[in-house]
Design a protein that fits this description.
alpha+beta, three-stranded antiparallel beta sheet, single chain, binds protoporphyrin IX containing FE, 17 helices
C-alpha cells in the first residue's frame, strides 16, 4: 500500500490553520519548498493535500476526476444559500444536465454578440472620468464588470442602481472576505449580526432575480441575453429548468462572472502601470490595430499583445488562486495514498510561479506567451480557468471581456499607481488587492497619423 505524503504537523488542535490564515500565499509556497510536490496537512480535524505538480493536478481535475467532488469548503451553508444547486456547486448527473443545458449560451458565436455591450459600457464609464483624477481602479473594474454581467444576463441596465446592487453584493461578500478559504471547513453557522445581514441581502437579491424571471416568462420574449438562453434550454426529454434552478444558475453566473474578471483587469492595470516598457508596447498595438476607433470582436485576433498581457497577468495574479476537491473514494495521487474524505487543493498561485515551468517566474513578461513559445509547457502548469469537466464555462466570455476592456480603456488613458497607497494581495475566495489599487489617470492621444478618426480624450 502506498504511503501518505509528508507535510507540516502544525499545532495539536488547530493543525496548520493559524499558519495558513496568517500568511496563506507564503505558507503554500513554503510547503512546496520544504516537502515537495504532494504535501499533507491538517485543518482542525480535516486532512488536506496540496498538489504542486501539473501531472498530479491533471489527475485531480481530468484523468481521475470521477474519484473526486468539489471540496467541502464549497458546501458551506453560506455559499449554498447564495448559489444553491447552480453549476459551480452541483454534482453528478444533476450537474451534467445543467452543464448541457447551459453550454449553448456560452458558445463563441453567442458570446461574441456581447462584445459591443462590453465596449459601450467601458466607454460610458470612462466618459465620466477626468484627466489627472485619482481613482481606485479595482473598484471601477468591479462596478463595470457588474454592469456588464447584469446587462448580458438580464438585458437590464443597473448603471443607476449599480450602487444599490453593489452594496448588497458587498454585504454578501463580507462573510467570505473575513475568512480564508479553508476556514470554511470550520462550517460557520453561528447566528452573528453579520450573518443576519448576509441572509437579508441574499433574500433581497432573490426577490429581484425571481421578479425578472417571472416577467420574462410572462412576456415570452427572447431578449438575446443569457437568461433567455437558459429559459429556452430544453433537455432531450423536453424538460426545462424550474424557477428555483434558474435562480440558482443566474446567481452563480452573476457571482462567478464578474468579480474574477474585474480582478484580472485590475491586476493588469497594476502590472502595466509598473512596467512601462510593456505598457508602451501595449499602446503601440492599440494605436496600430485600432488607431483611435472603438475595438470590435473582429479585432481580437490582431490584439495579440493585449491578449498576452491578460494571460501573463492571470499567471502572476490568478483571480481564482486555488481549486479544491474531496476524494469520494480511496485513491492515489503522485504515488501517495489518498484516503476517502481527503480535501485536495491545487494552487494556481504556486504552480504558475514555479521556476521548473517558467523562466524568471516572478517577472511580468507578456512576451513569453508569443505564438508557439509555450508549446512545451505541461498542460496544468497554467490553469487560470481550472480544467477537465468542471472547467470554467465562462472562459471565452472572460478572455473576450478582458481584452476588449483593456483595449477600450488603454486606448484613451493610462494609470500611475499612487506611491502612498502600496498594493497588497489578499487571498480570500479570490485573489484581491487588499486596499484596492489607487491610481492617477492621464489621458493619452492615439498616434498622430491616425488622429483624424481618434476618439475624444478623457474630458478634462
Ligand atoms: C478571469 C475570469 C475567470 C476566472 C479566473 C474563472 C475561473 C474559474 C475556475 C478556476 C473554475 C473551476 C473551478 C473548479 O474546478 O473548482 C471556474 C468555474 C466556473 N466559472 Fe469561471 N472564471 C472566470 C470567469 C467566469 C465568467 C465570466 C463566468 C460566467 C459568465 C464564469 C462562470 C463559471 C461557472 C458557471 C463555473 C462552474 C462550471 C462547472 O463546474 O460546470 N466564470 N471558473
Amino acid at each position: 500500500m502506498n504511503s501518505l505524503p509528508p507535510g507540516p504537523k502544525g499545532s495539536l488542535i488547530m493543525g496548520v490553520m493559524r499558519e495558513f490564515n496568517r500568511d496563506t500565499l507564503g505558507f503554500i509556497e513554503r510547503c512546496r519548498r520544504d516537502y515537495g510536490d504532494v504535501v499533507r496537512s491538517r485543518f482542525l480535524y480535516v486532512t488536506a493535500y496540496f498538489l504542486y505538480n501539473p501531472a498530479d493536478i491533471e489527475t485531480l481535475l481530468t484523468t481521475n476526476a470521477k474519484s473526486f467532488r468539489k471540496a467541502q469548503s464549497l458546501r458551506s451553508p453560506f455559499f449554498h444559500r447564495l448559489v444553491g444547486n447552480g453549476l459551480v456547486t452541483s454534482e453528478g448527473d444533476f450537474w451534467r444536465r445543467q452543464r448541457r443545458l447551459a453550454q449553448p449560451a456560452f458558445h463563441r458565436q453567442r458570446i461574441s454578440s456581447y462584445g459591443e455591450v462590453m465596449v459601450q459600457y467601458a466607454n460610458r464609464a470612462i466618459d465620466k472620468w477626468r484627466d489627472g483624477e485619482q481613482r481606485d481602479v479595482a473598484k471601477d473594474m468591479t462596478r463595470l464588470t457588474l454592469e456588464i454581467v447584469v446587462k448580458t444576463l438580464f438585458n437590464s441596465d443597473v448603471s443607476n442602481d449599480a450602487d444599490h446592487v453593489g452594496a448588497m453584493l458587498s454585504q454578501i461578500a463580507r462573510p467570505f472576505a473575513s475568512q480564508a478559504t479553508l476556514k470554511w471547513i470550520a462550517d460557520n453557522r453561528l447566528p452573528t449580526p453579520g450573518h443576519y445581514r448576509y441572509f437579508n441581502a441574499v433574500r433581497e437579491i432573490d426577490n429581484i432575480v425571481y421578479r425578472i424571471i417571472a416577467e420574462r416568462r410572462a412576456s415570452g420574449t427572447d431578449e438575446g441575453d443569457l437568461l433567455s438562453m437558459l429559459l429556452q434550454a430544453q433537455d432531450e426529454d423536453g424538460s426545462q429548468m424550474s424557477d428555483k434552478q434558474l435562480r440558482d444558475e443566474v446567481m452563480t453566473l452573476f457571482l462567478a462572472g464578474h468579480e474574477t474578471t474585474a480582478l484580472a483587469l485590475s491586476w493588469s492595470w497594476y502590472l502595466l502601470a509598473t512596467h512601462r516598457t510593456a505598457e508602451a508596447k501595449f499602446h503601440e498595438e492599440l494605436d496600430e490595430v485600432l488607431g483611435g476607433r472603438a475595438p470590435e470582436v473582429s479585432d481580437l485576433p490582431r490584439l495579440k499583445f493585449t491578449e498576452m498581457i491578460a494571460k501573463e497577468t492571470m499567471r502572476l495574479y490568478p483571480p481564482a488562486y486555488a481549486v479544491g476537491r474531496e476524494a469520494i473514494e480511496e485513491t492515489e495521487i503522485g504515488g501517495f495514498r489518498v484516503p476517502r474524505g481527503t480535501q485536495l487543493f491545487a494552487f494556481q498561485w504556486a504552480t504558475h510561479r514555479d521556476e521548473r515551468f517558467f523562466e524568471r517566474p516572478d517577472e511580468f513578461v507578456p512576451e513569453r506567451w508569443a505564438d508557439g513559445s509555450m508549446q512545451s509547457l505541461p498542460k496544468y502548469a497554467y490553469f487560470p480557468f481550472g480544467g477537465g469537466p468542471r472547467q470554467c464555462i465562462g472562459n471565452y466570455f472572460a478572455m473576450m471581456e478582458i481584452v476588449l476592456l483593456l483595449a477600450t480603456i488603454g486606448q484613451r488613458l493610462k494609470f500611475t499607481v499612487l506611491p502612498e497607497h502600496p498594493v497588497e494581495v489578499l487571498p480570500v475566495l479570490s485573489l484581491r488587492p487588499k486596499n484596492g489599487i489607487k491610481v492617477k489617470l492621464s489621458a493619452r492621444q492615439p498616434s498622430l497619423h491616425r488622429a483624424h478618426d481618434a476618439a475624444p480624450l478623457v474630458h478634462g
